[in-house]
Design brief:
18 strands; 29% helix; 389 residues; 9 helices; alpha+beta
Length: 389
């Protein structure tokens, strides 16, 4: 989960990292802070400055006009509902600091650059591996242009706090761009981009961040409910990835790569998915049952496609039993066509069980037909059902 800037700064402050005095605004109002101020639209996408969503307000009489231009503004299709007003920190140098996970080294790294601001990815930087298990602090050096006194303050005061925050709070990214020092040598994080590990939620009961997607849109009730299925239950996954779409064919897919292939195949066949979700890693029937109910709760569905490649570890009987139990509990009773294309452990038992089910319009296929072919079958049946209702 990506945090908004003001949320990230609250975390930084709680670990002793200085941030400018600020105020979160969600409507046109007069701030408690005095001008001059910086107004920053709170979005999850980057490049806010280029989008004109960061404004300096010199005079109090100009504040409300500037605030109104930001609230409701669309930035990368994300509507601005919150603005952060902050006092201005006088400074000279700006530095870039981040802690993140590096795919090449397969571990966390500290990255430093002597110049922060926009397009920092195009500038020279230094990276150093870090570890919460190391007996001694990592040996880091200042990039060219990083003032000596600033670097000494960073290594002795700032970095230890950032490291503790990164590991204690299960972050996947902690980026300060820029980190600055005022005339008295006091550090300030002028911006903050923070990503937290969603799977660590159970370890952090104090987290109270409203749900949001990567793109920043407000999740639907189904998206929120689906994500909760896996909370505190690590027996496989079911619903951690769930997105409502605009189509009329509900999808219950299995396996990350296979589920994406299935979505492509459905669209190629002329079908329109009503959602994207998946279950994998051998979840128990109870979790599949919950996810099935959520998928079927959407209005305007003309078909349901249960699809996956040939699994190695997922118990096909167990998961399809959970699916059938969900169908029997859904009201009103589903009459739409249901295409099932599955294969893997205990699939023969599963299909023997399904052939005895006469309550629903089931169309059963194993690995003898391809995912693409089952997508074509699903699409035709859904279109026929739509015209008959």
């Amino acid at each position: 989960m990506i945090l908004y800037e003001f949320e990230g700064k609250e975390l930084l402050s709680s670990y002793g990292i200085n941030t400018p005095k600020g105020e979160v605004l969600r409507k046109a109002q007069t701030p408690r802070l005095k001008t001059p101020l910086i107004l920053k639209a709170q979005t999850l996408s980057g490049k806010r400055a280029e989008a004109g969503s960061i404004k300096k307000v010199e005079k109090e009489e100009d504040f409300k006009t500037s605030l109104k231009t930001l609230l409701g503004k669309k930035i990368n299709k994300e509507e601005v509902t919150t603005v952060l007003a902050e006092e201005i920190v006088d400074h000279d140098e700006e530095y870039y600091v981040s802690l993140s996970y590096d795919t090449a080294s397969r571990g966390p790294v500290l990255t430093l650059a002597a110049r922060g601001g926009t397009d920092v990815e195009k500038r020279e930087s230094l990276s150093f591996p870090v570890s919460p298990l190391a007996d001694t602090p990592p040996k880091i050096k200042a990039p060219a242009g990083f003032e000596k006194e600033d670097f000494e303050t960073f290594t002795s005061e700032v970095f230890p706090k950032l490291l503790k925050l990164f590991f204690d709070e299960d972050l996947t990214l902690l980026e300060i761009n820029p980190l600055v020092f005022d005339k008295d040598g006091k550090h300030f994080a002028l911006d903050a981009k923070v990503k937290i590990d969603d799977s660590a939620l159970a370890r952090h009961p104090a987290w109270d961040f409203p749900p949001r997607s990567v793109a920043g849109h407000t999740p639907t009730k189904r998206e929120v409910a689906a994500k909760k299925i896996d909370e505190g239950d690590h027996r496989g996954t079911a619903g951690s990835a769930y997105f409502d779409l605009e189509g009329d064919i509900a999808v219950l897919a299995s396996g990350g790569g296979a589920s994406l292939t299935a979505m492509d195949a459905l669209i190629a066949a002329g079908g329109k998915p009503a959602n994207y979700t998946e279950y994998s890693g051998n979840p128990p029937k109870e979790k599949v049952e919950k996810l099935t109910k959520i998928v079927l709760s959407k209005e305007g569905i003309n078909g349901l496609w249960v699809v996956g490649a040939v699994d190695n570890f997922t118990d096909i009987y167990e998961t399809l039993l959970g699916f059938i139990e969900a169908l029997r509990k859904v009201e009103p009773k589903p009459k739409l066509p249901i295409v099932i294309r599955r294969g893997g452990p205990r699939d023969k038992e599963a299909f023997e069980m399904l052939r005895k089910v006469k309550d629903f319009d089931l169309h059963l296929y194993g690995e003898e037909i391809s995912i693409a072919k089952s997508a074509e079958i699903m699409t035709k049946l859904a279109k026929k059902y739509a015209t008959s209702t």
